[in-house]
Amino acid sequence: MQKKQYRTIILVLGALAALGPFAIDMYLPGFPAIAKDLNTDIAHVGLSLTSYFIGIAVGQLIYGPLIDRFGRKKPLLIGLSIFVLASLGCALAPSVEWLIGLRLLLALGGCVGMVASRAMVRDLFPLKDIPNVFSTLMLIMGVAPIIAPTIGGYVTAAVGWQFIFVVLATIAAAVLFAVARLLPESKGADTSISLKPRFILRDFSSVLKERTFLTYAIGSSLASAGLFAYISGSPFVFMEYFGLSDKMYGIAFAMNAAGYITGSQFNRLLLRRQTSKQITLKVGMLQFVAAMALLFGSLTGTLTAVGTLLLLFSFMFSLGIINPNASALAMTPFTKNAGSASAILGSLQMGTGALASAAVSYLHNRTLLPMTGVMAFVTTLSLMLLVSYHFISRRSLAASPVYETER
Q1: Where are its TM segments located (predicted)?
Q2: Which end of the chain is more exposed for a tag (fewer CB within 10 A), N or C?
């Protein structure tokens, strides 16, 4: 692969992967304005986040078999077209119920980019390069949450929240054009793959039987669920609890997204000295400490806006390291059914995120606890899983004859 082609592919895959986060984050500063215009409150507007996460979780399970059967590009073009139309529909939503439903459709269209981008990385790059490729994608993806809320804040203030979705439709149309013209087909149609439900379930079952996949897919999903709890709770925490303006909220959100980017790029340095397994376990402990500090500060009433930002930055920095390594470890065992594996991985991440987001909205009590409590809970579960797998793997290795000989 030529260097120029490599860069082009990475940029287009990064844009595909970033479209979902952009659609999540860009309209967050508009929550108060949306609630006012649609005669509801922020908690109910937050359900449009939950519906989006559900749509992504379900949609990825649909696209996984499709991109294995028909190739990567055709489903991409169809899904992105749905995203464009649903974005325009959100701009015209007459009620919060319509917005919630259209956000579900938006997710069902846009999630194809998340599935296809991970599968295409597995198609196009050698195993040893995949963690670094994912780190590069994280860099591109990380730009989205930095600029999206800032753009959303200015768009809301200047012309109204409806135009946020017009901007989203324009961006998706540009990505659609790039996929059609610049992205090569990494895997052609495979007629041996059946789309009958029993065969799809069989493929999913074979993926779930891989212990390595299951561990890192669930572990990374729980770690990422803390991010979705933060996304769901942050509009209230920063704009109502701490009293930041919509523009200042965009800046605060960008700072935490910068933590995610910094972590993903620092991961490149860590990979020179340690394996992905070692890094994931150690950094999972750092994320746990940050989450517990947020919970403790919420319970004692000692958290300030600055303190919250610093701890969230640490949490996001850790997640930026965990995600590329866990994703690479989860995808490594697969070739033929990489699309199904990518779909399950993404579905688990977004399904867990939907539950975390819904929990924050359901537990809303005008304090910091719903957000920080959910973040601490899912992070604890993630660390417990990773630690358990680490010790089980070491015991299995120690018991094997090969290990005894080499030791």
Answers
A1: 42-63, 75-94, 100-121, 133-155, 161-183, 213-233, 248-267, 279-297, 303-322, 343-363, 369-392
A2: C
